[in-house]
Amino acid sequence: MIDRQDINQTSITQGLTENEVIARRTAGLGNQVKLHTSRSYSQILKENLFTFINAVFLTISVVLIFLSRYGDAFLVIVVILGGVIVSVCQEIWAKQKLDQIALLTRPLATVIRESKQQNIDPSEIVVGDILVAQAGDQIVVDGQVVGEGRIEVDESLLTGESDLIPKLAE
Q: Whole-structure pTM over 0.85, yes or no?
């Protein structure tokens, strides 16, 4: 069991040990955020298949079938399905490329562990980690400022406020 007071007693210069990181991750104190980079395959299929224009053409096909114009009805359905297939294939290809780009541009977090700075994936951060933030870095988790000094943070993505927000050590 991990005591909350142990979490707050992490040394700024030493950081956590690997054993503490493992213990906190198994206790559920890790950064479990899933990054959704784009729409799912089922969303792409639904949004291309169930459109107003497709419903109109399906209705036209049904009317043509009732009028015994089977060839015309078949042609309308083939054209609509062809358009849907092309659209879905293009969007799936674009989704795969965007997902690859998102992995390449994903920020790394710099933490202090066992007195050394390490660059890690944000999903490997645990409660009590000491993050090192420098000018231009994205702050990937919520936390408090420790040590001496002050930092100004751009929170515009969260709050819409364009001014830098000063943060002081508590």
A: no
